[in-house]
Design goal:
The protein has helices at residues 15-21, 88-105, and strands at 45-48, 53-61, 64-69, 76-78, 83-85. It has 107 residues and is α+β, with helices and mostly antiparallel strands. It is globular.
């Protein structure tokens, strides 16, 4: 899955909150940690198979993967062994779930 960013390296789908978070380097990409050959890049859409949740990879900290729901919200930590790249069906499922949640909130 390709990472979408604006000129400052922030994901425009995150709005001001994502831009204010300031993740990444000057070029907008986070440098991989040593020994991180199997890590999903920050910004990748991924599935936490332990929780059956789809999220965007936000960081790798302390041997865990930080994921954020596709439509925004509270991040959660996942075991990297239980995280895989999302396929198109996973992405569609997450987008439909977010659209349904927004309609229930009256947006």
């Amino acid at each position: 899955m390709e990472r979408i960013t604006d000129g400052a390296g922030a994901d425009p789908r995150e709005g001001a909150e994502g831009a204010a978070r300031g993740r990444g380097t000057e070029a907008g990409e986070r440098l991989p940690a040593p020994g991180g050959a199997g890590r999903l890049p920050v910004g990748t859409l991924a599935v936490d198979t332990a929780r059956d949740r789809v999220g965007v990879v936000m960081d790798h900290v302390g041997g865990r993967v930080n994921l954020r729901p596709l439509g925004g919200g509270r991040e959660w930590d996942a075991n990297p062994g239980r995280v895989r790249p999302a396929d198109r069906a996973d992405e569609l499922r997450a987008r439909v779930r977010e659209a349904n949640a927004e309609s229930r909130r009256g947006r």
